[in-house]
Write a structure and sequence with these properties.
By secondary structure, the protein is of the alpha+beta class. It contains 16 helices and 25 strands. It is globular, with a radius of gyration of 23 Å. Bound molecules: flavin-adenine dinucleotide. The site of flavin-adenine dinucleotide has 44 residues, from α1, β2, α2, β11 and α10.
């Protein structure tokens, strides 16, 4: 017998779960399909930032007009205005709704937008989830996607954002923070007997844990290990889906709508090669391995859906390092903010800088593409730093000395994954970069470190830079001398945290066909849909904020159309 639900959602990430919880709240029966054996998607492994302009959580001077001005400026006219307006109008409603169902967010004071000098920019739009007790999520907590290696201390202990910042820079009190984490974890004997996973759900796992708790309480159904592979249409309207589980295919019907929230196509090499401006290997993606393979997007295209912004990803400079204790595996680690820390510089193969290293990650990635287009020397670039950097900071997975002293680095990594030499000239020779140019670049950086002024790119000159600056480094908290050997270099690849392109949807999250007409019964949200900010990352939480808002909008649209048809 073919099963039937009011609403079927493909994908259990933030977009899918926001749509599912809203649809349940509106009285629909809901089935979430999750292709993998863990639910939560990249969202559960993420920092959990949710960018919502004019969120209304406090009177802080933001407004609808200001938000629209900013979005229009940074998305460069590439996004339809009604879609931008739908995001701004519904973002605050979505946040209030989440609060009502126990998914609580807070403002991170002062967190600047990623284009702090653009018109309409405003600090404080990034919201973050409160920590959630895993026990309150019940057994569903055990099967949630986990944070990547660097998202937990020693790959075990969860931390919140403040703790992450303190640990990343060895800020005052970092040892006390570590002590508290260890105590909290090991003293929780009851939980320890059940699982080695940390009971503290922070950042992305806090967000998804709270969503799942609401979903389970409202009676939502989720099938894991079951992927959407096709869409059924009747009379031009989507009425069901074809799914695959352990190689077996079958059909499930949807009375009111199918929401495609199955993430992007970053693990589909063929699609990357076909669409990306600068094709890169799929394993440079930093999202859960092989999960988001674009099959749901392809299913939409098969029934005539249009796509947009397929040429680009949500970029994040990354480095590749073997996984200690797991033979023959290497992992792509996000550099996060490391490439802009003092006592370091980023150079292309010509030994030259090409970007302000402190710029937000997506803009850094786009700058790599642009420099590679001009010079052919930036598909992989180098993070060069000295021993002062090693003392205080990490370079992607290559953690600071206190956590990973040189003596603990496996011998076969040196000069393969991480390069080290006593002089800059020797280092340049090892990494095949023009030595004279590298020495000159470093000399200039040392001059800027002393004067506090980066004459080339203005490192440390805007609110975003200052927010992440190391206040202990003077006169410019973003620049420190690179002069104390040994010197190190780590190759940085054009990593991504998903793709920006997907099914083209309208302001009501309805998927459009290639003639611009909505396909009945089909909706899209999150990375499965074309980014609502086009080729730009507007601020911290700039993918999850819109993803959840359009998931929420999709459920509202389904409810409105169902009411009309009664
Ligand atoms: C380490 C890290 C930190 C990040 N931090 C942030 C942050 O703080 N804020 C922010 O905004 N962004 C962040 N990002 C990016 C962000 O996590 C993603 O852009 C976002 O989670 C995408 O949400 P989604 O719901 O569209 O997709 P996902 O969360 O990836 O969920 C998609 C789900 O669909 C499933 N799926 C795929 N195909 C099918 C199919 N055919 N049928 C059924 N299921 C399918 C997948 O297995 C997956 O579970 C981060 C990314 C990473 C890697």
């Amino acid at each position: 017998m073919v099963k039937c639900y009011d609403v079927i959602v493909a994908g259990s990430g933030s977009a899918g779960m926001a749509a599912a919880v809203r649809a349940l709240h509106l009285g629909f029966s809901v089935l979430v399909l999750e292709k993998e054996q863990q639910w939560g998607g990249t969202s559960a492994a993420s920092g959990g930032g949710v960018w919502i302009p004019n969120h209304g959580m406090k009177a802080d001077g933001d407004s609808h007009e200001k938000a629209m001005t900013y979005l229009k400026a940074v998305s460069n006219g590439a996004v339809r205005e009604d879609r931008l307006a739908a995001f701004v109008d519904n973002g605050s409603k979505m946040v209030s709704f989440l609060d009502e169902v126990g998914v609580r967010l807070h403002v991170l004071e002062g967190y600047p937008d990623y284009f702090p000098d653009a018109p309409g920019a405003h600090a404080g739009r990034a919201l973050f989830p409160y920590e959630v007790d895993g026990a309150s999520v019940g057994e569903s907590a055990y099967t949630m996607r986990e944070a990547p290696i660097r998202g937990k201390l020693f790959n075990r202990y969860s931390f919140g954002l403040d703790e992450a910042f303190a640990l990343a820079t060895k800020a005052r009190g970092w040892r006390v923070i570590v002590g508290k984490m260890l105590w909290r974890y090991w003293s929780d004997l009851g939980w320890r007997k059940k699982t080695s996973r940390d009971r503290r759900l922070t950042m992305g796992s806090g967000l998804m844990g709270a969503l799942r708790r609401a979903f389970d309480r409202m009676g939502g159904e989720m099938w894991m290990g079951t992927g959407l592979v096709g869409l059924h249409e009747e009379g031009g309207r989507v009425t069901g889906v074809e799914v695959e589980r352990y190689g077996h295919r079958f059909r499930v019907e949807a009375r009111h709508g199918v929401v495609i929230a199955a993430g992007g196509f970053e693990w589909n090499q063929e699609m990357r090669d076909r669409y990306f401006t600068l094709p890169t290997p799929a394993h440079w993606a930093t999202t859960p391995e092989r999960a988001n393979d674009g099959k749901a997007t392809l299913a939409g295209q098969e029934i005539g859906a249009d796509v947009e912004f397929m040429e680009t990803g949500w970029y994040i400079p990354s480095m590749i390092m073997p996984t200690i204790g797991v033979p023959n595996t290497a992992m792509t680690h996000q550099m996060s903010f490391d490439h802009g820390r003092p006592h370091s510089v980023c150079v292309n193969r010509n030994g030259e800088r090409f970007v302000k290293e402190t710029i937000a990650y997506d803009q850094f990635g786009l700058a790599m593409i642009e420099d590679n287009r001009k010079t052919g020397s930036s598909s992989v670039i180098w993070h060069v730093f000295d021993d002062q950097f090693r003392e205080k900071y990490s370079s992607g997975g290559f953690m600071l000395k206190a956590l990973m002293p040189d003596s603990k680095v496996p011998v076969h990594w040196w000069d393969h994954f991480i390069y080290r030499a006593d002089t800059l000239g020797d280092l340049a020779a090892k990494i095949d970069v023009d030595g004279a140019a590298l020495v000159k670049t470093v000399e200039r950086m040392n001059e800027y470190a002393r004067t506090g002024i980066d004459k080339e790119f203005g490192r440390g000159s805007d609110d975003y830079d200052r927010f992440f600056a190391d206040q202990r480094v003077k006169p410019n908290g973003c620049i420190g001398t690179i002069e104390k050997g040994p010197f190190y270099a780590v190759p940085i690849v054009l990593g991504d945290m998903g793709t920006k392109g997907g099914l083209k949807a309208d302001a009501q999250a309805r998927v459009l066909n290639t003639n611009g007409v909505p396909i009945g019964g089909l909706y899209a949200a999150g990375n499965a849909s074309g980014a609502i900010t086009g080729n730009c990352y507007p601020g911290a939480g700039g993918t999850i904020g819109p993803a959840m808002t359009f998931g929420f909008i999709a459920a509202n649209t389904i409810a409105a159309l169902a009411a009309n048809s009664r």
